[in-house]
Amino acid sequence: MAERLTIWCNAEFPEAVTARLIEGTKGHRLLIDRERASNLGSGGPSAEMGEADVAFGQPNPDQVIQLQGLRWVHLTSAGYTRYDRDDLRAALLGRGARLTNSSSVFDEPCAQHLLAFMLAQARQLPASLADQLGERTWVYEDLRPKTRLLLPGQVVLLLGYGAISRRLAELLAPFRMNLVAIRRAPMGNEPIPTYSVAELETWLPKADHIVNALPASPSTTRLLDARALALVKPGAQLYNIGRGTTVDQEALVQALESGRLAGAYLDVTDPEPLPSGHPLWRAPNCCITPHIGGGHAEEYPNLVEHFLDNLRRFEAGDPLIDRVF
């Protein structure tokens, strides 16, 4: 019989999804914290978590370090910036504990969101919608010459090569574009040409499409600053589904207003929510969605099923899915 584990959870789920979590963890002890946390912010220290073998949700990082009995942390997010700390990594690895995330739940919707951005821009959908909601002048003569194809030979520069970028690369395969990735530590076995961050300035002037899927970290803060944006090929498009802090927002507005960037498609901004008076709302050819790239109707059930799948693996001693370390 599988070991009886104490599982702590502070994720905020609908009632039916919580019921599925309770059902799926029968045989174990499930502690649902009174204080819930969203994926965008970890909760405070929890007395209940002190008894846990497994933490599911967004646990307090300092408490993760302190609790010697905590053997596995499973995050309800793909991002793990708060937990990407040397002291936390050393604490977990030092006691043989593991950290996993939910990349497998969010890679598909985020990749589809990026592809939708790319196709919408190419086919002039935002401009057509603006005309429909505005003057309704039937802008045939203006928009038809501006429509484009995602052409073979166009260079797509992927900033970050995690689960989202890998899935987007698969979705873009039929378009026969040239895909290149930039990542912190290239592995050497990537299926597309992949370079270190030191090569970013070499590739920015060559890219027709710059896809930013970078997480927030000290090394990525304002990576796309005024200097970097001045290097982009005139007429290039920028897409950001990573974190808003990776782009200098003021420099981005200037690049759009000058026309150097032909467009920006943003699912993330800095700050969030973006204030209604922020210049990005009015910047030319800037399309903003409110951090919904990973969202989908089955998001919460899929998060629980992903955890339960990993729980079965943990019980059996099998490799965990989406292991960070």
Can you characterise this structure?
The chain is α/β, with parallel strands linked by helices and 325 residues long. The protein folds into 2 domains: 6-101 and 297-316, Rossmann fold (3-Layer(aba) Sandwich); 107-288, NAD(P)-binding Rossmann-like Domain (Rossmann fold). The protein has helices at 15-24, 61-66, 86-94, 103-122, 125-133, 140-143, 163-172, 200-203, 226-231, 249-258, 299-316, and strands at 6-11, 29-37, 54-57, 72-75, 98-100, 155-159, 178-182, 194-195, 209-212, 236-240, 261-266, 286-288. Helix 1 packs parallel to helix 11 and helix 4 (103-122) crosses helix 7 (163-172). The model has no long low-confidence stretch (mean pLDDT 96).
Which structural traits does this protein have?
Rossmann fold; five-stranded parallel sheet; 17% strand; 2 domains; 12 strands; alpha/beta; seven-stranded parallel sheet; 325 residues
